[in-house]
């Protein structure tokens, strides 16, 4: 019997050797924590389909943000849950709207110690649940929505956001918001474009989190799950319009897209481990089917390995602590 000429196992023989040759290392600063703040909440409220995640009150938001900074996370992404909604999402650009009030509170609490990000999309604020305003035929009106996004973006910057996360998938949204910000002198505000965002069933639990009552679906603006070439076009357009960072969303079911975008993008790439990805891990772990912490770290490592520099994840604080 001959000896194998090649022995890859040599480099797996001990923790020290494995550490030496490790190709992918997560760092707390790679992780961004999505947070929800609910108008009128006196205390944090649990979200049924996202065990361990809450709709914060303003006080609990501040406390959780400080803890996240202590854990070393790279950023905080805030979503608002308003108590009233209307056709145009008036609460989105109202300085007293819950997202803007929450942003001011966050920024006051963390200053410049971490990066404060705002979700820039109308779906939490509209009574029909769409990401934009509707035309007379009930379809999402792209260009009328851009005007709403510009107003919303200005309100978010004035409330203290360092980064605006453009998640509505309207054509021209990056260029339009950039122009409105520049016009108002906000040339330093960073735009994170959800460049390749798919019409995904994995967003299901998020609808609980923001109490969205969506009529219909988002297939007329979010991408078809089978399309990959289209994602690269979206990324190219967003970068040309001035996106400072681009995102792929969801993450784990779209690692091929993360990888293709990372190969092509000249700006940092993020991926969003969305609510349904989180809920699947939690449900399987609660049923005793998988090792929760192990799968948490493995999924984050896989997303990072595929090419996402930053990962938005509901596990950000827990994972950051585990990495320290
Ligand atoms: C839009 C938005 C959504 C998510 C983030 N931003 C919902 C959607 O597009 O339907 C989903 C995030 C998640 O599922 O964790 N405001």
TrEMBL record:
Keywords: Heme biosynthesis, Lyase, Magnesium, Metal-binding, Porphyrin biosynthesis
Summary of the function given for this chain in its UniProt record: Catalyzes an early step in the biosynthesis of tetrapyrroles. Binds two molecules of 5-aminolevulinate per subunit, each at a distinct site, and catalyzes their condensation to form porphobilinogen.
Listed EC numbers: 4.2.1.24
Domain of life of the organism encoding this protein: Bacteria
Entries under PANTHER family matching the protein: DELTA-AMINOLEVULINIC ACID DEHYDRATASE
UniProt cross-references to CDD domains, sorted A to Z: ALAD_PBGS (cd00384)
InterPro entries referenced in this protein's UniProt entry, alphabetically: ALAD, ALAD_AS, Aldolase_TIM
Annotated metabolic or biological route of this protein: Porphyrin-containing compound metabolism; protoporphyrin-IX biosynthesis; coproporphyrinogen-III from 5-aminolevulinate: step 1/4
Residues where 5-aminolevulinate 2 binds: 275, 314
Gene Ontology cellular-component terms listed: cytosol
Coiled-coil ranges from the UniProt annotation: none
Residues where 5-aminolevulinate 1 binds: 207, 218
Reactions accelerated catalytically: 2 5-aminolevulinate = porphobilinogen + 2 H2O + H(+)
GO biological process: protoporphyrinogen IX biosynthetic process
Subunit structure: Homooctamer.
Species whose genome carries this gene: Oryzihumus leptocrescens
UniProt-annotated binding residues for Mg(2+): 234
Name of the protein in question: Delta-aminolevulinic acid dehydratase
Keyword Transcription regulation: no
Stored Pfam families: ALAD
Active site annotation, chain numbering: 197, 249
Protein family: Belongs to the ALAD family.
């Amino acid at each position: 019997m001959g000896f194998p000429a090649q022995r890859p196992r040599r480099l797996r023989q001990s923790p020290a050797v494995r550490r030496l040759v490790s190709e992918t290392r997560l760092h707390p600063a790679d992780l961004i924590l999505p947070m929800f703040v609910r108008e009128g909440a006196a205390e944090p409220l649990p979200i049924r389909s996202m065990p361990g995640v809450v709709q914060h009150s303003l006080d609990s938001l501040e406390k959780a943000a400080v803890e996240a900074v202590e854990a070393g996370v790279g950023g905080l992404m805030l979503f608002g849950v308003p108590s009233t909604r209307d056709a145009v999402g008036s609460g989105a650009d109202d300085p007293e709207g819950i997202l803007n009030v929450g942003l001011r509170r966050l920024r006051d609490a963390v200053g410049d110690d971490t990066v404060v990000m705002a979700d820039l999309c109308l779906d939490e604020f509209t009574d029909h649940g769409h990401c934009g305003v509707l035309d007379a035929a009930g379809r999402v009106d792209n260009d009328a929505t851009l005007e709403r996004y510009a107003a919303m973006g200005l309100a978010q910057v004035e409330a203290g956001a360092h980064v605006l996360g453009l998640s509505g998938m309207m054509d021209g949204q990056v260029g339009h918001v950039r122009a409105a910000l520049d016009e108002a002198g906000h040339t330093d505000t960073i735009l994170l474009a959800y460049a390749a965002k798919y019409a995904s069933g994995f967003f299901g639990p998020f609808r609980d989190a923001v109490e969205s009552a969506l009529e219909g679906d988002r297939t007329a603006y979010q991408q078809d799950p089978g399309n990959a070439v289209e994602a690269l076009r979206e990324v190219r357009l967003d970068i040309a319009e001035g996106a400072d960072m681009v995102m792929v969303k969801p993450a784990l079911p779209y690692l091929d897209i993360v990888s293709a975008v990372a190969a092509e993008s000249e700006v940092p790439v993020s991926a969003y481990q969305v609510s349904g990805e989180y809920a699947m891990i939690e449900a399987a772990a609660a049923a005793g089917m998988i090792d929760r912490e192990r799968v948490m770290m493995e999924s984050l490592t896989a997303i990072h390995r595929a090419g996402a520099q930053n990962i938005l994840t509901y596990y950000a604080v827990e994972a950051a602590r585990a990495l320290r």
